[in-house]
Amino acid sequence: MEWNPQTLQFLSQCFLNTLSPAPEPRRQAEASLSEAAESPNFGLVVLRLVAEPAVDDQIRQSAAVNFKNHLRLRWALEDSSILEPEKEQIKTLIVPLMLAAAPRIQSQLSEALAIIGNHDFPRAWPTLLPELVASLQNASQANDYTSINGILSTANSIFGKFRFQYKSNDLWIDLRYCLDNFAAPLLEVFIKTAALIDAAATGAALPPGVNLRQLFESQKLCCSLFYSLNFQELPEFFEDHMREWMTEFRKYLTTSYPAIEGSADGLALVDELRSSVCENINHYMEKYEEEFKGFLNDFALAVWTLLGNVSQSTSRDQLAVTAIKFLTTVSTSVHHNLFAADGIIPQICQGIVIPNVRLREDDEELFEMNHIEYIRRDMEGSDVDTRRRIACELLKGIATHYGDAVRNIVSGQIQSLLSSFAANPTGNWKDKDCAIYLVVSLSTKKAGTSYVSPDLVNVQSFFESVIVPELQSQDVNGYPMLKAGALKFFTMFRTQISKHVALNFLPDLVRFLAAESNVVHSYAASCIEKLLLVKDEGGVARYSSADISPIFPMLMNNLFSAFKLPESEENQYVMKCIVRVLGVADIPLDVARICIEGLGSLLSEVCKNPKNPIFNHYLFESVAILVKRASERDPSLVSVFETSLFPRLEIILSNDVTEFFPYTFQLLALLVELNRPPIPPIYMQIFEILLSPDSWKRASNVPALVRLLQAFLQKAPNEISQEARLTKVLGIFDTLIQSSSTSEQGFYVLNTVIESLPYDVIKPYISHVWAAIFRELQKKRPIKLLKSLLIFISLFLVKHGSSNVIDTMNAVQPDIFSVILTQFWIPNLKHITGNIELKLTAVASTRLICESPVLLDPAASVSWGKMVDSIVTLLSRQEQDRVEDETDMPDIEENAGYTATFVRLHNAGKNVEDPLQDIRDPREFFVASLSQLCARSPGRYSKVISENVDPENQTALLQLCNTYNLSIV
Fold it and tell me: Is the pLDDT of residue 293 over 50?
C-alpha cells in the first residue's frame, strides 16, 4: 500500500464509517480495513494518516486505535504482513509522533509502542531507550509535562515485564540495560517534579502550561516505574539514592494539598499517588527489610497518621487498603516491636480495625444491588482487597507475635458489640454484624501461620447464642445482612458444629432458600452444599442420604423455586447445591421425574442465550448425576430421561449452541452406557453423525466426541463391525493422531477398539493402524505420543498375545518390532504414569520377556536385559524420580480461533476399567514370572541381568525378590 491522496481519502472514509451508528456502512468499512491490513506497508500508511494534521481528529483517533490493534495482531507473527523494512520505519517514526500527538492519540500510540517494545526491546530496538531518555530530558528542560507523562507512560508499559516474568539471564540483562540508562533520568524528573509540587504547595506560581494535575500524574508514573525496576532485586543505584526517593515518598504521605484535593477527582489523583507510595514501601519492607529499616519508624508513623485521616468514603478504599497492608507487613516482620508499646494494639482495634470492619452504606447498597459482586468479595475471598478483609489481616498479623493481647482485646470488643445489639436490636444490628464478621475473619487461617486463635470465642456457644436466633427467625427476609452473616458463620464452622446440632437447623437452611435477598438464598444454598462435603475421620462422609431424606422433597422444591426469584434465574450457588444434593440423596422415582423436568426446563432457557459458564456447567453436572444415579437404581428411568433430554439436546445441536456441544456429547455417552444392548435405533442415527468427518472439525469437541465414540464401541460392538463403520472409526483415529493436541485422544479410540472387538474383526485393519503409527513416529516423537503408543501395544499384547503384536508389526515393515522395542519401548517405559497404566505396561513387558520367543532368543539377550532394567525402574522408583516434565508444546495453529473449550463433566465420566483384574500386584507378577523363567535355565538370565541392568536396579530387583520371598537363579 502506497501513501498518496487516494489512499488517504480511502482510509479516512473507512475510519469515519467505522464510527457510524448504522451497521451496514460500519461493517463494510471494517471489512475493507481488514482486507487492506494484509497489504505490506498498511501499518506505516495508517501511522502517517494519524500524523496528518489536516485530517479530522476523530478519524485520526480511530486510525490510532486501528494501528495499535494491527500491531497487536501481526507484529510478532513470523509470516506477518508487516515486513522488516516497514517495521524499521515504524520504529523510527513512532516516538516523535507519539510525543507530538494530542493526549487521546498519544495514549493509543503509547500502547502501540509498548506492543513493539514487548517483542523487540531492547535487542531488536537498541535506539528506543536512548531516544526516550533524550526526549525525556528535553521535555523536562522545557517543562513539557504532556510529553514527560507520555514518555513515562510508555516506559511504564515496557518495564512492566520486570514484575511478571520469571528470573532468567535474558531478563537480568534487559533489566541491567534499563537501569543503566533510565534510573538516573527517572530520579532527575522525580526530584524536579517534587520541587515544583513543593513550590505550588507554598503558593508559588507554576511554569506556564504546567498544572498540578500533570505533576501528580507524573509522580504516580515515577512510582510505578520505581516498583517495576525494583521488583526483581534492589538495584545498586536505588540503594545509593534511597534517601532521595524515601524523603519524597514520606512527604506525599504526610502533606495535604488543598489546591488539588478540593475536588473529588483531584483527591483521587493524590490518593493514587499515596497508594503507589504505600505499595513501594510495602515492597521494600517485604524484600529489602535490612536496607529499609532506617526509614521504617518514620513511615510507620506517617501511614498510621494517614489512616486516621482517611474517611470511610469508597473513593478512598484503595489508599486505605494499601496503607493497612503496609502495617500488616510490618506486624509480621522482625520489627513487630513497633506494636509492643502500651495502648498500640487497642488503638489499632478501635482506630483502624473496627471502623473499617463496620458496614457502610456502600456495603448495604452493594448487598442489595449487586449480589454477585458482594458474594465475590465477602464469601469467595476474591483478589479484590476490601477494607473489611485487610483490617482483619492486620489483626492477624499483629497476633502472630501478640496473640494473647489481640485475643483479649478482640474478645472484649466482640462482647461490647453484642451487648450494644442486645440493648437495641433494631438500631444496633450492624454491631452484631460486625461481631460475627470479626469472629469469622479472625478464625480463618493466614497463609504461613497458625490460627490466630482457635478459642477467640467458644464456637458452639457463639453459634447457639448469636447465630441460632438468626437461623430460627421466622421472617427470612428481616435484616438480610445479619442472616447472611449467620449463614456464613454456619458454613465456615461446619466441621466444628456437631452433626446432631447441624441437623436440627437443616430445615431452617431450606427455609432460607426462599428468602428474597439473593445473597441470603445463595448463602443458604452454599451452606447446604458445603455441609454435605464434610468428612469425618477416615474420609467418611458425615451426612448421608438418610440425613436429608426427611427434607428431600421440600429441599428440591425450594432449590428449584429459588431460580424464579428476581436475578437468580442462573444462580450458580443454588445449582451447585443441586449437584451436591443429588450426589448424596436416594432419589425416588417421582422426585427424579420432577427433577429432570426442572433441569430440562432450565436447559431450554439457557440454550437461548448462554451467559454464565459456571451455572451452565453445574446445570449439566446436575443432569449427569441425576441420570447416572437414578438410572443405576432404577433402569426403567433411562427412557424417562431420554424422553425429556433428547428434544433439548437436539435443539443444542440443530441451533449450533457450540458452548454446549461438549456437554451434549458427554451426556449422550452416559445415556448410551446406561442402555442395555441392543442399542435403540435413535442412538445409531447419532452414531452415523458421529462418524462424519465434519463432526470432528472443532477441536474443543474432540474429547467429548471420543468419550461418546468409546461408549458406542463398548455398547454396540456388533453394530461397529457392520456397514464399514470400523473403517470410519479407524479413519477418525488416523486423523486425531496427526495433531499433537489430539494424538492422545486418537489412542483412546484405538484402545477401546482393541478392548471391545474380537481379534478376527480387527485383524484386517491392524496393518493400516501400524502404518499410521509408524508414519507419526517418523514425523515427531513427543513423550505424550510415545506413552500412548506403549499403552496401546501393552493392551494389544495382554488381549491378543505377544506373537500377534510382533507378527503384525513386522508384516508392515520387516524387523520393525526390534526397532520399536529398542528405540521406543525400553527407553520410555519409565515415563508411564497412572496406576492402571503402570500395571498394564509392566505386565505386558513382563509377558514379553518371559513368553515371547523373539526376546527369549539368546541373540536378543541385550534387549532382554535392558527391558528388565526398564521394568525395574518403572516398578521400584517413585513417579517424580523417573518421569520427566512434559515439554511438548501444542501446535499453535491448531488451537487458534477457538472460543468454546472442552470442560469434563465429572458425573458423566467414563468408568475406568482394569483390563487385568485377575492380577492384583504387578510387582509380584513380574518377580514371580521372572523367577519361574530363570528356574528353567539356571544361571543364564542372572548373567544377562548382571551385565545389562543398572547396579541400582539390581539392588532394587533383589529387594523385590525378598519382598515376595522369591529368587532369581
Answer: yes
Name 238's Cβ contacts closer than 8 Å, sequence gap at least 6: 183, 226, 229, 230, 245
pLDDT tens-place string over residues 242-285: 999 999 999 999 999 999 998 989 999 999 999 999 999 999 99
Please, are residues 459 and 496 in contact by the beta-carbon 8 Å criterion? Answer: yes
pLDDT band at 688 (very low <50, low <70, confident <90, very high): confident
**Could you identify the residue written with the cell 494517614?**
306
The alpha carbon dihedral of 544, 549, 551, 557 has a sign of positive
**Listed residue (299, 301, 321, 300) closest to 310, CA to CA:** 321
Task: Report which of 247, 257, 488 is spatially closest to residue 367, judged by C-alpha positions.
Answer: 488
Q: What residue type is assigned to position 297 of the chain?
A: N
- Cα(901)–Cα(701) distance, integer angstroms: 8
Tell me which DSSP letter residue 25 carries.
H
Count CB neighbours of 676 within 10 A: 8
- CB count in 10 Å sphere of residue 263: 11
Residue 736 in contact with residue 756, Cβ under 8 Å? no
| 897 pLDDT tier (thresholds 50, 70, 90) | very low
Rounded Cα–Cα distance for residues 749 and 709 (Å) = 7
Region 916-934: what's the mean pLDDT?
93
Q: First and final CA of the chain: distance in angstroms?
A: 81
Decide: 838 and 879 in contact? Cβ < 8 Å: no
User: Does the structure show a pLDDT above 60 at 682?
Assistant: yes
Please report, for residues 132, 135, 661, the alpha-carbon distance to residue 155 in angstroms, rounded to integers and kept in the order given: 8, 12, 45
Comparing 571 with 676, the larger pLDDT belongs to: 571
Q: Which residues pair with 535 in a beta bridge?
A: 541
Grid cell, residue 849, equals 520377556
| Contacts (Cβ under 8 Å, ≥6 apart) of 541 | 532, 534, 535, 584
Kindly report, residue by residue over 369-413, the tens digit of the pLDDT.
999 999 998 886 655 578 888 998 898 899 889 888 888 888 999
Number of residues assigned to the chain: 969
State the Cα–Cα distance between residues 520 and 574, nearest whole angstrom: 11
**Residue 632 corresponds to which cell in the numbers above?**
443405576
- For residue 232, which phi and psi values (nearest 5 degrees)? -75, -40
912 pLDDT more than 80: no
- Name, in order, each residue with C-beta under 8 angstroms of 361's C-beta and a sequence gap of 6 or more: none
Mean pLDDT value of segment 333-352: 89
Written in H, E and C, the secondary structure of 115-181 is HHHHHHCCCCCCCHHHHHHHHHHHHHHCCCHHHHHHHHHHHHHHHCHHHHCCCCHHHHHHHHHHHHH
Rounded Cα gap, residues 626 and 607, in angstroms: 20
By the 10 Å C-beta count (0-12 exposed, 13-18 middle, 19+ buried), 768 is classed as middle
Query: Which three three-digit cell numbers place residue 708?
Result: 461418546
pLDDT digits (tens, 9 = 90+) for 713-765: 988 888 887 778 899 999 999 999 998 888 999 999 999 999 999 999 999 99
Q: How far apart are the C-alpha atoms of 691 and 300, rounded to whole Å?
A: 70
What pTM was computed for the model?
A: 0.80
Q: How confident is the model at residue 922 (pLDDT cuts 50, 70, 90)?
A: very high
- For 129, counting Cβ atoms within 10 Å of its Cβ (0-12 exposed, 13-18 middle, 19+ buried), the class is buried
State residue 448's pLDDT score: 40
Q: What is the pLDDT of residue 381?
A: 62
Cβ atoms of 783 and 824 within 8 Å: the answer is no
- Provide the total of helices (H) and of strands (E) in the chain, helices listed first: 55, 0
Burial class for 951, CB neighbours closer than 10 Å (0-12, 13-18, 19+): exposed
Give me the helix-helix angle, 951-963 and 922-936, nearest 10°: 100
**In sequence order, which residues have a C-beta less than 8 Å from that of residue 452 and are 6 or more positions away?**
395, 396, 399, 403, 406, 407, 442, 443, 446
